[in-house]
Design a protein that fits this description.
Layout (H helix, E strand, L loop, with lengths): L1 E3 L6 E3 L4 H83 L5 E9 L4 E8 L4 E6 L13 E7 L4 E12 L3 E15 L2 E10 L7 E9 L3
Antiparallel strand pairs: 1-2, 3-4, 3-10, 4-5, 5-6, 6-7, 7-8, 8-9, 9-10
Length: about 220
């Protein structure tokens, strides 16, 4: 049955029979069934999308953690390698310095020439730990008996430089003595030769210091 709209714009058709009404209800039920069937599907699809996003975040987080861990290990390796190389370089420098610098240990015959022309001789025995002894070699000492050694000390400087010093008593004439301190500053010319400058400072009196040069030759044996 058709029903005319009072405005005459739209015509509505009403079901004429019970069969048509039943068909309409069946169609509505089918549509509702379809909607009910689609609702779980949409929910499952949403869950899948949410799970995928969660997995993506987990993968991204794992990737970031792996990259951070890799960076830390990389920088630790770089720092450790630098320290090892620095230590090796220092050890090599020490070894080269020890190899290139001759040893001072042993007995040396020292000849001194002061600026005023005086000549003196002594024996220097260099021992370990920077210790040693001086022994004057002067024929005039025979008047007073054999010379006695005095304590001395020595140290190494940069490169081949060396310093050794100690108290001595030079003879003055046949009875006088000139006590003072000798300081030698020189360097190795060869493994068995040291040359440099020497200064003698008196222990008593107002006598001036004397300076000069020296040559030390390693004693055989």
């Amino acid at each position: 049955m058709d029903v005319a709209d009072p405005a005459g714009a739209v015509l509505l058709r009403m079901p004429d029979t019970e069969s048509e009404w039943n068909d309409g209800r069946e169609n509505d039920e089918i549509e509702m069934t379809k909607l009910e069937a689609m609702t779980p599907l949409r929910a499952a699809t949403a869950r899948q999308a949410n799970d995928q996003m969660t997995n993506d975040r987990d993968v991204a987080s794992s990737s970031f953690g792996f990259c951070a861990s890799f960076d830390i290990r990389h920088w630790c390796f770089v720092i450790f390698s630098s320290l090892i190389l620095t230590l090796i370089a220092q050890l090599c420098s020490i070894a080269m310095a020890q190899t290139q610098s001759p040893s001072l240990l042993g007995r040396w015959n020292v000849e001194i020439t002061f600026a005023n022309g005086d000549h003196r001789s002594l024996r220097f025995d260099a021992q370990g730990a920077g210790k040693g002894t001086f022994l004057l070699l002067d024929p005039k000492l025979n008047v007073w008996g054999p010379a006695k050694p005095s304590e001395a000390k020595w140290s190494r400087g940069e490169g081949n430089s060396v310093t050794f010093s100690g108290p001595v008593e030079f003879m003055l004439g046949n009875v006088g003595r000139d006590a003072g301190t000798l300081v030698f500053k020189g360097k190795f010319e060869t493994e068995s030769l040291i040359t440099g400058e020497v200064e003698f400072s008196p222990l008593v009196g107002d006598g001036p210091s004397k300076s000069g040069t020296f040559k030390a030759i390693r004693a055989a044996g």
